[in-house]
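User: Here's a structure from my thesis project, written as C-alpha coordinates. My advisor, Dr. K., wants to see whether a designed sequence matches the one we expressed. Can you design one independently, without my sequence as a hint?
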Protein backbone atom coordinates (compact mmCIF):
# COMPACT_ATOMS: atom_id res chain seq x y z
CA UNK A 1 0.00 0.00 0.00
CA UNK A 2 1.33 3.44 -0.94
CA UNK A 3 2.05 5.76 1.95
CA UNK A 4 -0.46 8.62 2.21
CA UNK A 5 0.54 12.22 1.61
CA UNK A 6 1.21 14.42 4.62
CA UNK A 7 1.17 18.21 4.95
CA UNK A 8 3.72 20.25 6.91
CA UNK A 9 3.24 23.98 7.42
CA UNK A 10 6.21 26.20 6.66
CA UNK A 11 7.38 28.77 9.17
CA UNK A 12 6.74 31.80 6.97
CA UNK A 13 4.94 32.90 3.82
CA UNK A 14 6.73 32.53 0.49
CA UNK A 15 5.40 34.15 -2.65
CA UNK A 16 4.20 31.44 -5.07
CA UNK A 17 6.09 33.06 -7.94
CA UNK A 18 9.35 32.84 -6.01
CA UNK A 19 8.66 29.22 -5.09
CA UNK A 20 7.87 28.30 -8.68
CA UNK A 21 10.88 30.03 -10.22
CA UNK A 22 13.29 28.57 -7.66
CA UNK A 23 12.71 24.98 -8.74
CA UNK A 24 9.60 23.71 -10.55
CA UNK A 25 10.03 26.18 -13.43
CA UNK A 26 13.18 24.28 -14.44
CA UNK A 27 11.51 20.87 -14.28
CA UNK A 28 10.26 19.28 -17.54
CA UNK A 29 6.82 18.59 -16.03
CA UNK A 30 5.66 21.44 -13.80
CA UNK A 31 2.57 23.34 -12.74
CA UNK A 32 1.46 26.52 -11.03
CA UNK A 33 -2.27 26.92 -10.45
CA UNK A 34 -2.47 30.56 -9.57
CA UNK A 35 -4.99 32.58 -7.56
CA UNK A 36 -3.33 35.79 -8.81
CA UNK A 37 -0.41 38.07 -7.97
CA UNK A 38 -2.31 40.07 -5.35
CA UNK A 39 -4.73 37.39 -4.17
CA UNK A 40 -6.17 37.68 -0.65
CA UNK A 41 -8.51 34.70 -1.05
CA UNK A 42 -8.24 31.24 -2.56
CA UNK A 43 -5.38 28.80 -3.00
CA UNK A 44 -2.40 28.44 -5.31
CA UNK A 45 -0.59 25.18 -6.04
CA UNK A 46 3.02 24.82 -7.19
CA UNK A 47 4.96 21.67 -7.94
CA UNK A 48 6.04 18.99 -10.36
CA UNK A 49 4.65 15.69 -11.51
CA UNK A 50 5.10 12.84 -13.93
CA UNK A 51 3.05 12.35 -17.10
CA UNK A 52 0.12 9.99 -16.58
CA UNK A 53 0.69 7.15 -19.03
CA UNK A 54 -2.96 6.12 -18.98
CA UNK A 55 -5.06 9.31 -19.14
CA UNK A 56 -8.29 7.30 -18.99
CA UNK A 57 -7.38 6.54 -15.38
CA UNK A 58 -8.33 10.11 -14.49
CA UNK A 59 -11.77 9.68 -16.04
CA UNK A 60 -12.40 6.66 -13.79
CA UNK A 61 -12.18 8.70 -10.56
CA UNK A 62 -15.51 8.76 -8.71
CA UNK A 63 -16.61 12.35 -8.07
CA UNK A 64 -17.12 12.81 -4.36
CA UNK A 65 -14.66 15.17 -2.71
CA UNK A 66 -15.89 14.70 0.85
CA UNK A 67 -14.16 17.21 3.11
CA UNK A 68 -11.64 15.95 5.65
CA UNK A 69 -11.60 18.31 8.62
CA UNK A 70 -8.22 16.96 9.68
CA UNK A 71 -6.54 17.94 6.39
CA UNK A 72 -5.22 21.51 6.65
CA UNK A 73 -3.74 22.17 3.22
CA UNK A 74 -6.69 22.98 0.97
CA UNK A 75 -8.96 21.01 -1.32
CA UNK A 76 -6.28 19.42 -3.52
CA UNK A 77 -4.82 16.46 -1.63
CA UNK A 78 -2.88 14.85 -4.48
CA UNK A 79 -4.02 13.44 -7.79
CA UNK A 80 -3.65 14.90 -11.26
CA UNK A 81 -3.12 18.34 -12.77
CA UNK A 82 -3.47 18.90 -16.50
CA UNK A 83 -5.70 19.83 -19.41
CA UNK A 84 -8.25 18.44 -21.86
CA UNK A 85 -8.67 19.82 -25.38
CA UNK A 86 -11.78 20.66 -27.36
CA UNK A 87 -11.61 18.15 -30.21
CA UNK A 88 -11.32 15.07 -28.00
CA UNK A 89 -14.33 16.19 -25.98
CA UNK A 90 -16.43 17.10 -29.01
CA UNK A 91 -15.72 13.80 -30.76
CA UNK A 92 -16.67 11.82 -27.64
CA UNK A 93 -20.18 13.30 -27.74
CA UNK A 94 -20.62 12.68 -31.45
CA UNK A 95 -19.76 16.05 -32.97
CA UNK A 96 -17.64 16.35 -36.12
CA UNK A 97 -14.16 17.73 -35.47
CA UNK A 98 -11.25 19.03 -37.51
CA UNK A 99 -8.07 16.97 -37.64
CA UNK A 100 -5.51 18.10 -35.08
CA UNK A 101 -1.90 18.59 -36.14
CA UNK A 102 -0.68 16.59 -33.14
CA UNK A 103 1.70 19.32 -31.93
CA UNK A 104 0.03 19.61 -28.52
CA UNK A 105 -1.71 16.62 -26.88
CA UNK A 106 -5.46 16.83 -26.42
CA UNK A 107 -5.21 15.20 -23.00
CA UNK A 108 -2.24 15.87 -20.74
CA UNK A 109 -2.27 14.92 -17.06
CA UNK A 110 0.58 15.03 -14.58
CA UNK A 111 0.46 12.62 -11.65
CA UNK A 112 1.17 14.83 -8.63
CA UNK A 113 2.38 13.64 -5.22
CA UNK A 114 4.77 16.45 -4.21
CA UNK A 115 3.72 20.09 -4.17
CA UNK A 116 3.25 23.32 -2.23
CA UNK A 117 -0.17 24.65 -1.22
CA UNK A 118 -0.60 28.40 -0.62
CA UNK A 119 -3.56 29.69 1.40
CA UNK A 120 -3.85 33.35 0.40
CA UNK A 121 -6.46 34.18 3.03
CA UNK A 122 -4.28 33.15 5.99
CA UNK A 123 -0.87 33.59 4.32
CA UNK A 124 0.05 29.98 5.12
CA UNK A 125 2.21 27.65 3.01
CA UNK A 126 2.07 23.86 3.24
CA UNK A 127 4.54 21.32 1.87
CA UNK A 128 2.73 18.17 0.74
CA UNK A 129 4.51 14.89 -0.03
CA UNK A 130 5.02 11.34 1.21
CA UNK A 131 6.19 11.21 4.83
CA UNK A 132 9.69 10.13 3.79
CA UNK A 133 10.05 13.13 1.44
CA UNK A 134 8.17 15.98 3.05
CA UNK A 135 11.00 17.31 5.25
CA UNK A 136 13.29 17.49 2.23
CA UNK A 137 10.60 19.49 0.40
CA UNK A 138 10.31 21.83 3.41
CA UNK A 139 14.07 22.43 3.45
CA UNK A 140 14.27 23.00 -0.28
CA UNK A 141 11.34 25.43 -0.16
CA UNK A 142 12.67 27.43 2.75
CA UNK A 143 16.04 27.70 1.02
CA UNK A 144 14.29 29.02 -2.08
CA UNK A 145 12.84 31.85 -0.02
CA UNK A 146 16.32 33.37 0.07
CA UNK A 147 16.63 33.45 -3.72
CA UNK A 148 15.88 36.65 -5.57
CA UNK A 149 13.26 37.00 -8.27
CA UNK A 150 14.23 39.41 -10.99
CA UNK A 151 11.79 41.29 -13.18
CA UNK A 152 10.59 39.51 -16.26
CA UNK A 153 12.14 40.86 -19.45
CA UNK A 154 9.87 42.54 -21.98
CA UNK A 155 9.05 40.31 -24.94
CA UNK A 156 10.64 40.69 -28.33
CA UNK A 157 8.20 42.27 -30.79
CA UNK A 158 6.36 39.72 -32.90
CA UNK A 159 3.87 39.72 -35.71
CA UNK A 160 0.64 37.88 -34.98
CA UNK A 161 -1.35 36.31 -37.76
CA UNK A 162 -5.03 35.47 -37.54
CA UNK A 163 -6.84 32.47 -38.93
CA UNK A 164 -9.58 34.80 -40.19
CA UNK A 165 -9.47 38.44 -41.18
CA UNK A 166 -11.96 40.69 -39.41
CA UNK A 167 -14.00 40.79 -42.62
CA UNK A 168 -14.04 37.00 -42.89
CA UNK A 169 -15.05 36.67 -39.23
CA UNK A 170 -17.87 39.16 -39.80
CA UNK A 171 -19.09 37.03 -42.72
CA UNK A 172 -19.05 33.96 -40.46
CA UNK A 173 -21.15 35.88 -37.95
CA UNK A 174 -23.78 36.45 -40.62
CA UNK A 175 -23.74 32.73 -41.40
CA UNK A 176 -24.29 32.06 -37.70
CA UNK A 177 -27.25 34.41 -37.75
CA UNK A 178 -28.55 32.56 -40.79
CA UNK A 179 -28.41 29.25 -38.93
CA UNK A 180 -30.22 30.86 -36.01
CA UNK A 181 -32.86 32.28 -38.35
CA UNK A 182 -33.44 28.78 -39.74
CA UNK A 183 -33.94 27.42 -36.22
CA UNK A 184 -30.82 25.23 -36.21
CA UNK A 185 -29.40 26.97 -33.12
CA UNK A 186 -30.24 29.62 -30.55
CA UNK A 187 -26.69 30.73 -29.90
CA UNK A 188 -23.28 29.88 -31.37
CA UNK A 189 -19.84 30.47 -29.86
CA UNK A 190 -17.80 31.34 -32.94
CA UNK A 191 -14.02 31.24 -32.42
CA UNK A 192 -10.84 32.00 -34.31
CA UNK A 193 -7.12 31.69 -33.66
CA UNK A 194 -4.14 34.06 -33.52
CA UNK A 195 -0.62 32.65 -33.82
CA UNK A 196 2.99 33.76 -33.57
CA UNK A 197 6.07 32.02 -34.92
CA UNK A 198 9.47 31.55 -33.32
CA UNK A 199 10.81 30.36 -29.99
CA UNK A 200 8.73 31.28 -26.93
CA UNK A 201 9.83 31.23 -23.29
CA UNK A 202 6.64 29.86 -21.71
CA UNK A 203 7.55 30.76 -18.11
CA UNK A 204 8.41 34.38 -18.93
CA UNK A 205 5.28 34.59 -21.05
CA UNK A 206 3.10 33.45 -18.17
CA UNK A 207 4.74 35.89 -15.77
CA UNK A 208 3.88 38.75 -18.14
CA UNK A 209 0.34 37.45 -18.66
CA UNK A 210 -0.50 37.14 -14.96
CA UNK A 211 0.90 40.60 -14.23
CA UNK A 212 -1.11 42.30 -16.97
CA UNK A 213 -4.36 40.31 -16.69
CA UNK A 214 -4.58 38.60 -13.27
CA UNK A 215 -7.38 36.10 -12.74
CA UNK A 216 -8.58 33.87 -9.91
CA UNK A 217 -8.10 30.73 -12.04
CA UNK A 218 -4.82 31.50 -13.74
CA UNK A 219 -2.37 28.74 -14.34
CA UNK A 220 0.76 27.40 -15.97
CA UNK A 221 1.23 23.74 -16.88
CA UNK A 222 4.17 22.41 -18.87
CA UNK A 223 5.15 18.98 -20.08
CA UNK A 224 8.21 18.58 -22.21
CA UNK A 225 8.14 20.97 -25.16
CA UNK A 226 4.53 22.18 -24.71
CA UNK A 227 2.89 24.44 -22.15
CA UNK A 228 -0.37 26.17 -21.29
CA UNK A 229 -0.30 29.68 -19.79
CA UNK A 230 -3.74 30.93 -18.78
CA UNK A 231 -5.38 33.94 -17.18
CA UNK A 232 -8.79 32.29 -17.23
CA UNK A 233 -11.62 34.03 -15.37
CA UNK A 234 -14.08 31.16 -15.91
CA UNK A 235 -14.47 28.21 -13.55
CA UNK A 236 -15.86 25.30 -15.55
CA UNK A 237 -16.48 22.50 -13.04
CA UNK A 238 -15.93 22.26 -9.30
CA UNK A 239 -16.87 19.22 -7.19
CA UNK A 240 -16.88 19.32 -3.38
CA UNK A 241 -18.86 17.05 -1.04
CA UNK A 242 -20.70 15.49 -3.96
CA UNK A 243 -21.97 18.86 -5.27
CA UNK A 244 -20.96 20.06 -8.73
CA UNK A 245 -20.88 23.74 -9.71
CA UNK A 246 -20.26 25.49 -12.99
CA UNK A 247 -19.91 29.25 -13.56
CA UNK A 248 -20.50 30.05 -17.24
CA UNK A 249 -19.43 33.43 -18.60
CA UNK A 250 -21.40 35.03 -21.40
CA UNK A 251 -21.26 38.77 -21.90
CA UNK A 252 -18.18 40.98 -22.14
CA UNK A 253 -17.31 44.68 -22.08
CA UNK A 254 -13.84 46.30 -22.02
CA UNK A 255 -12.74 48.23 -18.94
CA UNK A 256 -13.08 52.01 -19.15
CA UNK A 257 -10.21 54.47 -19.03
CA UNK A 258 -11.92 56.53 -16.28
CA UNK A 259 -14.00 55.56 -13.25
CA UNK A 260 -17.08 57.06 -14.87
CA UNK A 261 -16.54 55.28 -18.18
CA UNK A 262 -15.75 52.00 -16.44
CA UNK A 263 -18.91 52.16 -14.33
CA UNK A 264 -20.96 52.96 -17.41
CA UNK A 265 -19.57 49.98 -19.32
CA UNK A 266 -20.36 47.61 -16.44
CA UNK A 267 -23.90 48.99 -16.24
CA UNK A 268 -24.28 48.68 -20.00
CA UNK A 269 -23.25 45.02 -19.82
CA UNK A 270 -25.72 44.25 -17.05
CA UNK A 271 -28.56 46.00 -18.91
CA UNK A 272 -27.87 44.49 -22.35
CA UNK A 273 -30.83 42.39 -23.50
CA UNK A 274 -28.57 40.52 -25.93
CA UNK A 275 -25.94 39.66 -23.30
CA UNK A 276 -28.53 38.69 -20.68
CA UNK A 277 -30.36 36.45 -23.14
CA UNK A 278 -27.09 34.82 -24.20
CA UNK A 279 -26.12 34.15 -20.58
CA UNK A 280 -29.51 32.71 -19.65
CA UNK A 281 -29.43 30.42 -22.70
CA UNK A 282 -26.14 28.93 -21.52
CA UNK A 283 -27.43 28.66 -17.94
CA UNK A 284 -30.37 26.62 -19.23
CA UNK A 285 -28.00 24.47 -21.29
CA UNK A 286 -25.75 23.83 -18.30
CA UNK A 287 -28.76 23.00 -16.12
CA UNK A 288 -29.78 20.44 -18.71
CA UNK A 289 -26.23 19.03 -18.94
CA UNK A 290 -25.81 18.65 -15.18
CA UNK A 291 -29.26 17.11 -14.78
CA UNK A 292 -27.94 14.06 -16.66
CA UNK A 293 -25.62 13.17 -13.76
CA UNK A 294 -27.36 14.83 -10.80
CA UNK A 295 -30.11 13.87 -8.39
CA UNK A 296 -33.49 14.83 -9.93
CA UNK A 297 -34.65 18.22 -8.74
CA UNK A 298 -31.27 19.22 -7.30
CA UNK A 299 -29.99 21.33 -10.21
CA UNK A 300 -30.58 25.06 -9.90
CA UNK A 301 -29.12 28.45 -10.75
CA UNK A 302 -27.59 29.65 -7.48
CA UNK A 303 -26.62 33.04 -8.91
CA UNK A 304 -27.74 34.73 -12.09
CA UNK A 305 -26.30 37.57 -14.20
CA UNK A 306 -23.60 38.96 -11.92
CA UNK A 307 -20.95 41.35 -13.25
CA UNK A 308 -17.36 40.39 -12.41
CA UNK A 309 -14.58 42.82 -13.27
CA UNK A 310 -11.03 41.91 -14.29
CA UNK A 311 -8.02 43.89 -15.45
CA UNK A 312 -9.08 44.02 -19.09
CA UNK A 313 -12.81 43.23 -19.14
CA UNK A 314 -16.14 43.13 -17.33
CA UNK A 315 -17.88 39.73 -17.55
CA UNK A 316 -21.46 38.57 -16.99
CA UNK A 317 -21.37 35.40 -14.86
CA UNK A 318 -23.92 32.93 -13.48
CA UNK A 319 -23.59 29.87 -11.22
CA UNK A 320 -25.39 26.52 -11.66
CA UNK A 321 -25.12 23.69 -9.10
CA UNK A 322 -26.49 20.21 -8.47
CA UNK A 323 -25.92 17.14 -6.29
CA UNK A 324 -24.23 14.34 -8.21
CA UNK A 325 -25.71 10.86 -8.43
CA UNK A 326 -23.84 8.25 -6.42
CA UNK A 327 -20.84 6.70 -8.21
CA UNK A 328 -20.70 9.40 -10.90
CA UNK A 329 -17.22 9.29 -12.38
CA UNK A 330 -15.22 12.17 -13.77
CA UNK A 331 -15.73 10.63 -17.19
CA UNK A 332 -19.51 10.61 -16.65
CA UNK A 333 -19.41 14.28 -15.68
CA UNK A 334 -17.33 15.17 -18.72
CA UNK A 335 -19.68 13.21 -20.95
CA UNK A 336 -22.59 15.28 -19.67
CA UNK A 337 -21.01 18.74 -19.57
CA UNK A 338 -17.90 18.90 -21.77
CA UNK A 339 -17.29 20.75 -24.06
CA UNK A 340 -18.75 23.56 -22.00
CA UNK A 341 -21.91 25.18 -23.30
CA UNK A 342 -20.29 28.61 -23.00
CA UNK A 343 -17.83 27.51 -25.73
CA UNK A 344 -20.33 25.77 -28.02
CA UNK A 345 -23.81 27.26 -28.00
CA UNK A 346 -27.26 25.76 -27.89
CA UNK A 347 -28.53 23.20 -28.67
CA UNK A 348 -25.05 21.84 -28.05
CA UNK A 349 -24.64 19.07 -30.66
CA UNK A 350 -26.27 21.14 -33.39
CA UNK A 351 -24.12 24.13 -32.41
CA UNK A 352 -20.88 22.11 -32.54
CA UNK A 353 -21.83 20.72 -35.94
CA UNK A 354 -22.52 24.18 -37.35
CA UNK A 355 -19.34 25.62 -35.84
CA UNK A 356 -17.27 22.80 -37.33
CA UNK A 357 -18.48 23.80 -40.81
CA UNK A 358 -17.72 27.48 -40.17
CA UNK A 359 -14.41 27.39 -38.29
CA UNK A 360 -12.87 24.74 -40.60
CA UNK A 361 -9.90 24.15 -38.29
CA UNK A 362 -9.14 22.69 -34.85
CA UNK A 363 -9.45 24.68 -31.63
CA UNK A 364 -6.84 22.51 -29.92
CA UNK A 365 -6.43 23.07 -26.19
CA UNK A 366 -8.35 26.36 -26.49
CA UNK A 367 -12.02 25.94 -25.46
CA UNK A 368 -10.99 22.91 -23.41
CA UNK A 369 -10.39 22.93 -19.67
CA UNK A 370 -7.51 22.69 -17.19
CA UNK A 371 -6.96 22.30 -13.46
CA UNK A 372 -6.88 19.48 -10.92
CA UNK A 373 -8.66 16.21 -10.21
CA UNK A 374 -8.04 14.78 -6.76
CA UNK A 375 -7.66 11.18 -5.67
CA UNK A 376 -10.58 11.82 -3.32
CA UNK A 377 -12.93 12.80 -6.17
CA UNK A 378 -12.80 16.55 -5.62
CA UNK A 379 -11.91 18.65 -8.66
CA UNK A 380 -11.58 22.22 -9.87
CA UNK A 381 -11.30 22.99 -13.58
CA UNK A 382 -11.21 26.28 -15.46
CA UNK A 383 -11.99 27.00 -19.09
CA UNK A 384 -9.05 27.44 -21.44
CA UNK A 385 -9.79 31.03 -22.44
CA UNK A 386 -7.57 34.15 -22.26
CA UNK A 387 -4.78 31.61 -22.68
CA UNK A 388 -1.60 30.91 -24.60
CA UNK A 389 -0.56 27.47 -25.83
CA UNK A 390 3.16 27.20 -26.57
CA UNK A 391 4.78 24.52 -28.69
CA UNK A 392 8.00 24.01 -30.64
CA UNK A 393 8.24 26.84 -33.15
CA UNK A 394 5.54 29.13 -31.82
CA UNK A 395 2.36 29.69 -29.83
CA UNK A 396 -1.34 30.29 -30.39
CA UNK A 397 -4.17 32.20 -28.73
CA UNK A 398 -7.82 31.34 -29.27
CA UNK A 399 -10.65 33.85 -28.91
CA UNK A 400 -14.31 34.03 -29.78
CA UNK A 401 -17.73 35.22 -28.78
CA UNK A 402 -21.35 34.15 -28.49
CA UNK A 403 -23.45 34.95 -31.53
CA UNK A 404 -27.21 35.44 -31.26
CA UNK A 405 -29.78 36.74 -33.72
CA UNK A 406 -29.30 40.24 -32.30
CA UNK A 407 -25.51 40.21 -32.62
CA UNK A 408 -23.85 43.17 -34.31
CA UNK A 409 -20.92 41.99 -36.43
CA UNK A 410 -18.72 45.02 -35.75
CA UNK A 411 -19.25 44.74 -31.99
CA UNK A 412 -18.51 41.01 -32.04
CA UNK A 413 -15.28 41.54 -34.01
CA UNK A 414 -14.21 44.19 -31.50
CA UNK A 415 -14.97 41.83 -28.58
CA UNK A 416 -12.71 39.13 -30.05
CA UNK A 417 -9.93 41.71 -30.33
CA UNK A 418 -10.38 42.70 -26.68
CA UNK A 419 -10.15 39.07 -25.54
CA UNK A 420 -7.08 38.27 -27.65
CA UNK A 421 -5.12 41.43 -26.90
CA UNK A 422 -3.92 40.50 -23.39
CA UNK A 423 -2.51 37.06 -24.22
CA UNK A 424 -0.96 38.35 -27.44
CA UNK A 425 0.70 41.22 -25.57
CA UNK A 426 2.36 38.70 -23.26
CA UNK A 427 3.89 37.23 -26.42
CA UNK A 428 5.00 40.68 -27.63
CA UNK A 429 2.37 40.93 -30.36
CA UNK A 430 -0.73 42.95 -31.18
CA UNK A 431 -3.73 41.55 -33.02
CA UNK A 432 -3.49 42.10 -36.77
CA UNK A 433 -5.06 45.32 -38.13
CA UNK A 434 -8.84 45.47 -37.78
CA UNK A 435 -9.01 43.34 -34.66
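Assistant: Designed independently from the structure alone:
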Amino acid sequence: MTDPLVAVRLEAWIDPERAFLSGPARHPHAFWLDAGPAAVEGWSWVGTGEPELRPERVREVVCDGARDAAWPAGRFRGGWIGWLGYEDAASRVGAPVAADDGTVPQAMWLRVERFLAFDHRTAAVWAVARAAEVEELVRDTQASALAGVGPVAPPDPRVARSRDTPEEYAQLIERCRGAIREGDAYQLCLTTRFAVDGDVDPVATYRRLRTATPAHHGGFISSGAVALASASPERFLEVTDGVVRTRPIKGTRPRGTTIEADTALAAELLASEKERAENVMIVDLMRNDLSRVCVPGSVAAERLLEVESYAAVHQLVSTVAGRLDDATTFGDLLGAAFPAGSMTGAPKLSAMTILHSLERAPRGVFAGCFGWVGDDGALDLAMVIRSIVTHPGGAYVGAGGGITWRSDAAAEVAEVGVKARGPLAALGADPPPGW
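When you compare it with your expressed construct, this may help: The longest strand covers residues 107-119.
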